[in-house]
Design goal:
The protein is α+β, with helices and mostly antiparallel strands. The chain has helices at residues 4-10, 50-53, 121-126, 132-139; strands at residues 16-21, 25-30, 39-49, 62-64, 71-75, 83-84, 90-94, 98-103, 112-115. Strands 4-5-3-8-7 form a 5-stranded antiparallel sheet. The protein is globular. The N and C termini lie far apart (35 Å).
Length: 141
């Protein structure tokens, strides 16, 4: 993969936009066709002690940055607005101070860009991301 300087210079946020997604709230859409393995976005990370986010609405938009969960990261740009999918069309990689969103297949113009949060079906159900029926089907495996 290219180095981070190449990824940043190739980062074209004009290719994506935030839009209302039926049944999901906000999400990120492709404004143009995005080819497989193309960088969709490079977003800087804001690192915050986890305890400072507890009880705030920002807690829903961050992720654990350290294994001991003492530090959380808030991805700036559009990165905190990508919705979850068990079969995503994009993936993320964490660099020291940024998160890089990359297409893992061709993404068509107007298609929602989704990543896998690496959550279990139980967590997705508790967050309202899947229905009870979907949870039960996934739990049968």
């Amino acid at each position: 993969m290219n180095n981070i300087k190449d990824e940043i210079s190739n980062n074209d946020c004009a290719q994506i936009c935030v839009s209302q997604i039926d049944g999901k709230g906000r999400g990120v859409l492709a404004m143009t066709k995005i080819k497989n393995e193309s960088v969709v976005e490079v977003a800087p990370l804001l690192l915050v002690p986890r305890d400072e986010l507890l009880g705030t609405m920002l807690r829903e938009y961050c992720f654990s940055y350290k294994r001991d969960r003492s530090l959380s990261a808030i991805a700036l740009g559009y990165a905190s607005l990508y919705n979850h999918a068990f079969e995503p069309n994009a993936k993320y990689s964490i660099k020291k101070n940024s998160v890089v969103i990359t297409a893992c297949r061709d993404i068509e113009k107007g298609e929602e860009i989704c990543i896998d949060y690496n959550w279990s079906p139980r967590k997705c159900y508790s967050k309202g991301l899947i229905t009870k029926e979907e949870f039960e089907l996934m739990s049968e495996d």
